[in-house]
Amino acid sequence: MSAVLAAAPADVEEKDWAANREVTLERLRIVDMVHEGKPACRLCGQIVNRLDAFGLCSKTSEPHRQRRGDFTPAKKARKR
After folding, report:
1. CB 17 within 8 A of CB 26
2. pLDDT value, residue 53
């Protein structure tokens, strides 16, 4: 069976990719339908399944941490 799997990719002819605006727009429409009604992060606008208590997504970037009120040190702590 492994001989069949190893030979299979060589037998397949690769098709040239060409941009198709209609297909792209159709796929983006489907993605928009899936995301319809889901909340967006107040800070970055990312569509998520669930927001935290501050209305933010789960990102831990500096602006997200500041908006949550997390302590952010001015410089990295030294090693002992």
Report:
1. no
2. 93
Query: Looking at the domain assignment, is residue 7 inside a domain?
Result: no
Q: And the tokens for 8?
A: 């299979």
Q: Is the pLDDT of residue 16 over 60?
A: yes
Domain residues for the domain of 49 are: 41-73
Q: To the nearest whole number, what is the mean pLDDT of the chain? A: 84
Per-residue pLDDT at 74? 67
Q: Is residue 34 part of a domain?
A: no
Residue 40: strand, helix, or coil: strand
**Residue 80 falls within a domain, yes or no?**
no
What domain count does the chain have? 1
Per-residue pLDDT for 6 more than 60?
Answer: no
- Residue 47 forms part of a structural domain: yes
Q: Who contacts 46 (Cβ-Cβ below 8 Å, separation ≥6)?
A: 40, 57, 59
> Structure tokens of 61?
């970037």
